[in-house]
Amino acid sequence: MKLKANGLLVLLTIILISFNQTAKADIYKQALSNSARSETETKVDKKRKPDEVLRFFEIKSGMKVFDVFAGGGYYSEILSYVVGPKGSVTLYNNQPWDNYVNKAVAARLKDNRLPNVKNYVEKPEELTKHREKYDAAIFILGMHDLYYADPEVRWPEIDKMKFLKGIHSILKPGAVLGVIDANAVEGADNQLVGKKLHRVDPKVLIKDLVAAGFVFDSESNILRNKDDDLVSSVFEPKNKYNTDRSVLKFRKK
């Protein structure tokens, strides 16, 4: 009887561990299925795969996460559900981005709808003065904007290295920086393709982040698309969330 009891105890322990692991893994799926999300955004989940992305970037409950050039906040809202009430999200844009998306951000955060999300607007170069520290940061489809200036749309020249070092400075040691961007052909002029195509050569992106103090950790193929031509604008209808995208994980030493 004692052997049977011990066997049952072992079995129950295995079941409990398995359940706990499943529950933890499901935090991303649960975030996507949150009923408060808009139908417009849930429709693009299949192409953007935010659950797989955030799992790869090791975002966990209770974390403080900095969402770089968050735009209207698609990822900020999902992050809000993943980190939960004990965590927080900073939805960050520079002024030109905010001029374009401020109404969308205001609607998303209206009436304290996402109480753990804070809107933050600041010059990229000023992040070096930011004193709050974060457990992780994500930079989704925006790093190509650091390589050009476009006066016609009032997009300013950014001190790229100062900005990247600013992101580095606000992260805690060991923190992950997750980066996604649409790929250009290897060796492309990032100033040109950034402005015209909104793409970037991922090898240059990696080089610049390493120069800013990050360590390149790993890459995921979850958003790769071998059929993308790499030379057309991401805004062409055929390319909307269909581009060949690098999903890159960096760490702060």
Give a topology summary.
Elements lengths: L1 H24 L1 H6 L6 H4 L2 H4 L1 H7 L7 E5 L5 H10 L4 E6 L1 H15 L7 E5 L12 E7 L19 H10 L1 E12 L7 H7 L5 H10 L2 E7 L24 E8 L1
Parallel strand pairs: 1-2, 1-4, 2-3, 4-5
Antiparallel strand pairs: 5-7, 6-7
What can you see in these coordinates?
This protein has 253 residues and is of the alpha/beta class. The chain has a single domain, classed as 3-Layer(aba) Sandwich (Rossmann fold). The chain is 38% helix and 20% strand. It has ten helices and seven strands. A seven-stranded mixed sheet has the order 3-2-1-4-5-7-6, sandwiched between helices. β4, α8 (160-169) and β5 form a beta-alpha-beta unit. The mean pLDDT is 93.
What percent strand?
A: 15-25%
Q: How do the SSEs run, as a string of H and E? A: HHHHHEHEHEEHEHHEE
Number of structural domains: 1
Strand numbers in spatial order across the main sheet: 3-2-1-4-5-7-6
Mean pLDDT: 93
Tally of individual helices: 10
Indicate the CATH class.
Alpha Beta
**Overall 3D form:** globular
Largest sheet: 7 strands, mixed
